[in-house]
Amino acid sequence: MVKAVVLGAAGGIGQPLSLLLKLNHDITELALYDIVNSQGVAADLAHIDTPAKVTGYLPPNNGLQSALTGAHLILIPAGVPRKPGMTRDDLFKINAGIVKDLAASIAQNAPKAFVLIISNPVNSTVPIFAEVLKKYKVFDPKRLMGVTTLDLVRASTFASEVLGADPREVRVPVIGGHSGVTIIPLLSQAKPSCTFTQDQIETLTNRIQFGGDEVVKAKDGSGSATLSMAHAGARFASRILDATIKKAPGITECCYINLDADEKCGIQIKNTTENLEYFSVSVELGPEGISKIYPIENLSRYEEKLLKDAIPELRGNITKGITFISEDSKFTQYKHIHENEKTKSQDDLVVSLGVNDLLQNDIIKVIAIILFFVGNIFVLSSMYALGITGTYLGDYFGILMDERVICFPFNVLENPMYHGSSMVFLATSLWYSSPAGIILTIWVFILYSIALQLEGPFTAMIYDKQQESGSQIAELLTIRAPFIQSLASNCDKISIRKLEIDAKRTLEQPWNEFVVLYVKVIISMTFQNILTLSRWSLPILYVLDYDLRLLAIKSDLIFMMTEKPPKNLEIAARAINKSFSICSLGVSRKWGTYYFAGLLFKTYFKLKQQNLCKNVMRSIKAASVDLPPFERFPKAHQVTYLYYHGLLLFLDAEYNLAEEKLVAAFRMCPKSNKKNKELIWIIRGILPSTEILSRYSRLNKLYKPFIDSIREGNVKNFDDALVMNEIKLVSQNTFLTVELAREIAMKVLFKKVIKLRW
């Protein structure tokens, strides 16, 4: 019986991978696990007439544990692919958390299984997996592999295209890692032996390293290399089964591993790679997993340079994965429990003193119970007597008991709160037979006692000093004081920065900060009339809607590949629209109009529902009679509104009006905000100058080919640039506008032809 498990079986990679594994006759049982839809996928695959029995599992009823029990081979494509708008850090946090939880379950339910990691970023997820297995004391480097087979598949395919050969006959080793510059194709060692020019080598290397981008671009950002990755994963799984089940000799593959899998050869590779713990390298597979690592030899100069460039990036990826686990509180606690060498030596000392035997006595346990209940009675009852509510631990640590509890039984002890809490600590230490806890409790009790003795005189001294300072400040800041009257009438001339400097120079902490804050409040009240009835709620409402939009976007991204993708952003748009309606209709809430208008514009454009933006603008126009002046709103919201207003006019082909709004937005944008300035330039009605292009890299990359073609009158280059950038231009709604510029290139070409004829 050979049981294979796919964790993440309902995803974009998981489904085709599960299909390919169902077709493998070496597998007799196929377990499919995912958080949704895995049972549907299993039911579909179960109709295929191959030996493997297919079962789907979901999280309820210990589904993951059941899926893993008895597993021989586990493949993990679980996680999310990198999507447009998602940073590498976003991708890492999501997938790292998923891999960590799966690793913990595998450590407990299938510690001897062969594990193949597909979840990206593999350079980090394999170290994460290894660190979790180490915490559970079940890590075997021979049985954990990161699947880099897709890099080998791409290398064979792309190299065969250049050679005009059958890709099945071409083999190119690929070492390093599994992302970008960490992927190092060894074209000099391709089989059958062949010769590439340096240009071909560099072009092939770049294409192999960034082949995934081709697929993402071809799928218009709606997916990644799911099918080819599924093929690569199934191929590697088949090789593992050949080695571990059929015991076939001489099976070699490249994969991303912990170099301790082969101590002798691993040291050689560590020396070559500046002591990296993980590296993708050629290995020989055997019945127990990795039986041998092949050394890195005979690299060309170009490949040596690739290796040198890859090492820092790979080191950072590995460190990121290891740090993710070392900083995880759950595993930090686990480490403290299981790393007991130091604790053992301390326990030996305690045993030699006879303390442990004493603490294990039943009488001590009874004393602990009594102390625990008595201590809690004092603490909780005194809290009740003082009118203190809330959580037990959250309250008594922060309380200075200014009043005495005079009723029985609380007056048995002075300061029952402190003494009661000490009893509880001592009881807990006695119950768990912890000498260190007893010592700590006694030490804390001594500190309590000292603090209680000092509390009275020390607090009185502070109160006297604060009362004196407070009276002076109160007299200075009363609303009737000449200083405040002058401030209110001249607040437009006040320099907050100068005020802060003067306050720090003339007043002590914290009074200098208090004065500056007070002045800011006066200025805010004068300028913005903050005391209107319900305007105080606007910042809260705005923050809630802003966060709601971000959460909706992220949740839609995470579950985009499921059978029924959610539409959380549409729900968020309706909520933001309600906030906008409240502001545009309520007299005191008009100040929020442009805040929520900007949020709505961003949301509707994200949903590709630009027409709804016009409803927002009509509502603003209808409410404009009693709206505060536009220029009184924060500049950030002014820029947002002007930008989207200009963009809507641009889409309606009202170019002159669009230019007017966009220029106003551009001038109002801070110089430091290059990203927003670039976005505005992209849809302006004029091609940017060379000087402008030099300032904004994104503009330069997008428009320089067109500008060069126009200047040269090179219509062919213009058409090529249009084809190459079509997807980007269409997504920015500028394709038709740039296409019109082709006429300018034609005119320049005609002028050159006329000059030649003359």
List strands and helices in order, with pairings.
Layout: E1 3-7, H1 14-22, E2 29-33, H2 38-45, E3 53-57, H3 63-68, E4 73-76, H4 88-109, E5 114-117, H5 122-135, E6 144-146, H6 149-163, E7 174-176, E8 183-185, H7 198-209, H8 211-218, H9 226-244, E9 251-258, H10 263-272, E10 278-286, E11 289-293, H11 301-326, H12 329-338, H13 341-352, H14 355-359, H15 362-385, H16 392-396, H17 416-431, H18 435-477, H19 482-489, H20 496-506, H21 511-528, H22 538-558, H23 568-585, H24 593-606, H25 611-622, H26 635-651, H27 655-668, H28 674-682, H29 690-695, H30 697-712, H31 715-724, H32 726-731, H33 735-740, H34 742-757
Parallel strand pairs: 1-2, 1-4, 2-3, 4-5, 5-6
Antiparallel strand pairs: 7-8, 9-10, 10-11
Helix pairs in contact: 1-9, 4-5, 5-11, 6-7, 15-17, 17-18, 20-21, 22-23, 22-24, 23-24, 24-25, 24-26, 26-27, 27-28, 30-31, 30-34
Structure commentary:
The chain has 758 residues and is an alpha/beta fold. Among the domains are: 72-329, Alpha-Beta Complex (L-2-Hydroxyisocaproate Dehydrogenase, Chain A, domain 2), CATH 3.90.110; 355-460, no CATH class; 478-528, no CATH class; 687-758, no CATH class. It is 61% helix and 7% strand. The protein contains 34 helices and eleven strands. The strands form three sheets. It has a six-stranded parallel beta sheet, with helices on both faces. The chain has a three-stranded antiparallel beta sheet with strand order 9-10-11. The protein is globular, with a radius of gyration of 35 Å. The N and C termini lie far apart (86 Å). It is found in: Endomembrane system; Endoplasmic reticulum membrane; Mitochondrion membrane. This is Phosphatidyl-N-methylethanolamine N-methyltransferase.
